[in-house]
Automatic annotation (TrEMBL):
Residue ranges for the DNA-binding region feature of this UniProt entry: 123-222
Annotated organism of origin: Pseudaminobacter soli (ex Li et al. 2025)
Gene3D superfamilies hit by this protein: 6.10.250.690, Winged helix-like DNA-binding domain superfamily/Winged helix DNA-binding domain
Cross-referenced InterPro entries: CheY-like_superfamily, OmpR/PhoB-type_DNA-bd, Sig_transdc_resp-reg_C-effctor, Sig_transdc_resp-reg_receiver, WalR-like, WH-like_DNA-bd_sf
Protein name: Two-component system response regulator
Domain OmpR/PhoB-type: 123-222
Amino acid sequence: MIVIVDERELVKKGFSSLFDREGVASAGFRSDEFGEWVESAAESDLKSVSAFLIGDCGEDKISPRRLRDRSGAPVIALSEHHSLENTLKLFESGVDDVVHKPVHIREILARITAIRRRTQEEANYTEIGPMRIFMDGRDPEINGEPMPLPRRERRILEYLATNSGRRVTKTQVFNAIYGIFDDEVEENVVESHISKLRKKLREKLGFDPIDSKRFLGYRLVV
């Protein structure tokens, strides 16, 4: 999930719509709402955040350094000012990157992937047995052959691969794929997506790579 912080409702809704088209969950806040949420949010909710986009929030309303006390997700400033002085000021505040608007939503996603790769020293894919699972929106490969997946199923597989070796709950998967504030979708939709994903993986691999335990959640195994 990507969190967008901006005082303008139109900007938040616009970015949320664009992320939704890419199959990426998002949530929007005003700066005062955001500060309160960050202070009180459960750790599991914050772990579902893949990046924070900080837009028009006024002077010094959001501190990226303070934000890192609660989350290691990348912080990207969205700037409408193209001056060098403003860009340097944003970097000095502690953001990981500065993006000047207008910007294509895929560029933002690529920058998030690049930052996470640098900070976590990760490749842009994870290999689990014969599966190569990419973290940049590409379909996974099995034995070197692409396996096309609907975007929700692909995002679930990416999330499971990111947490390889750890079990994640249905709620954690839902929060990461749909966002923690999506009231229009029932959490049980995760079970349907995972059931379809497991069937496709079973057909390609000859075994089920998703281990599930009732009340405990899911994890990828080989």
